[in-house]
Amino acid sequence: MKKYVVFMLVFLVALVSGTVSSIYMVYHFGNLALNESLKIYELDVHWNSEFKASIGHQISVSVNENDINRLKKLACTLMDLGVKHIDPDLYEKNPDRKNDLVNRIKEYKEEMEKLRQQGHCDNFFK
Q: For a Cys-Cys bond, which of 3, 21, 25, 76 suits 115, CB 3.0-4.6 Å?
């Protein structure tokens, strides 16, 4: 009987310590993952702000220098970068919005093709 009680105590201690360590690991690694994703989000927001500032600067320089070709190249690059990431299927529940996006993407691609034929669509940021 004594061996049975000792075995049960050892088993319970092992079970409790395993459970506690598992909970701690999930909590600890969950926090690490959350912190890492927050850092990535902050970097993404920072990059987005940096990108917008760079675009504003490039537009200002182009206007000040009256460089219409540079503005066309910038416009084509921005449309190209944007169109790649627009997904009308995200608006499946809103058919009007989806159709509007499909039509605008078509319009953007037509404008990009015109600019490409004029030689304005090599990457602006190279």
A: 76
Helix (H) or strand (E) holding 116: helix 95-117
Contact between residue 37 and residue 25 where contact means Cβ atoms under 8 Å apart: no
pLDDT in tens, 26-51: 666 666 666 677 676 666 666 677 77
Q: What does the alpha-carbon distance between residue 56 and residue 5 come to, in Å, rounded to a whole number?
A: 76
C-alpha–C-alpha distance, residues 89 and 101, integer Å: 10
The residue ranges of every structural domain in the chain are 1-65, 67-126
Per-residue burial over 94-117, b = 16 or more CB atoms within 10 Å of its CB, e = otherwise: eeeebeebeeebeebeeebeebee
Sign of torsion over alpha carbons 107, 74, 52, 82: positive
- Phi first, then psi, for residue 65 (nearest 5°) are -90, 0
User: How many alpha carbons lie under 13 Å from residue 39 in its C-beta half-sphere?
Assistant: 6
Q: At what angle do helices 68-83 and 2-64 cross, to 10 degrees?
A: 160
pTM: 0.54
